Predict the structure of SET domain-containing protein.
Amino acid sequence: TVELVPGHVPPEEIDPADAKDAADRLRAGEGFAPEEQEKCDVRSGNDARDPASGPPSSGIVPGVDVAMVNLKGFDAHTREKIAENMPHAVAEHDVDEFIDLVSQTMRLDAVAGADPSLESAAKTIAESKAATPAHRACAKVLVKLCAKDPKEFKAKSKGVGLVVIRDGGIPRGEYLGAYCGELYPAWRWFEKEAAAQAVRRDVKRDDEVPTFYNAAVERDLHDPRGYDVLFIDGAVKGSVLTRASHSCQPNAEMRVRIREGKYSVEMVTTREVRTGEEICWDYRCQTDSDKEMRRAICLCGSKNCRVSYLHYNGESELAVFADENCA
Ligand SMILES: [Zn+2]
């Protein structure tokens, strides 16, 4: 469970001086705004060039705009297996639409409080008068596949996600809110991460893939106060956006803005998000562990799924970067 907080809260585990220091590092240089903020389109109504002004709105509200529910998804392999087994008479784009409809039906089941399984979603579509004949034909086949091989044709739990429930959906370019949580200066963050890793190793669970309820906030290179980096941890205390899932085909993105003189990591929609769709962004997390990457199976279920939600930046890439930048 997570306690929802409207703004950044000082980290509890670190001493008060560090918490104060972290909050101070969030302050921007006098009157400074990043280039993107200065160039933004003020007519859109959800952005502001003036770094002294506040956010355009309170952002999305759970229970009003989105439902925070436990969701299930399927990996790229399962999506491929489903597509392979669909009737040959059904066109490829109809198959793609059908698989997206399965994901959508599972989300709606979750919002309704039902168990979001692949089989029940297929049954719903097979019997739906609103579905096209092609989609119904695909659904009938999927029902049989689920019964025949329930291990292969199975959705897996992907934790809490945010499903849009607002009538009419959320338009493109809407401000969804700030990514808030406990704030850590970089050195404390890495100390904490190292300690958490040691605990996982001690209890022989070092094979666990870390969960990502955190984001980094960087102070702009051109900020008169200089470059800096802070970490926002939303694992225990976080705003609703810390629960948005990863997708390889996202509909929202993070951006850095200065609001009331302080750095803020915000989320905005990059396209219209219809009712029943999930708000998701591309985590773009990096790992230098090939093992970790292979275990981080993505369950976004999208056609463009990259299989893992982690990007592998192999040792050689790191070496190249060091050669070029640390001479
Ligand atoms: Zn994916």
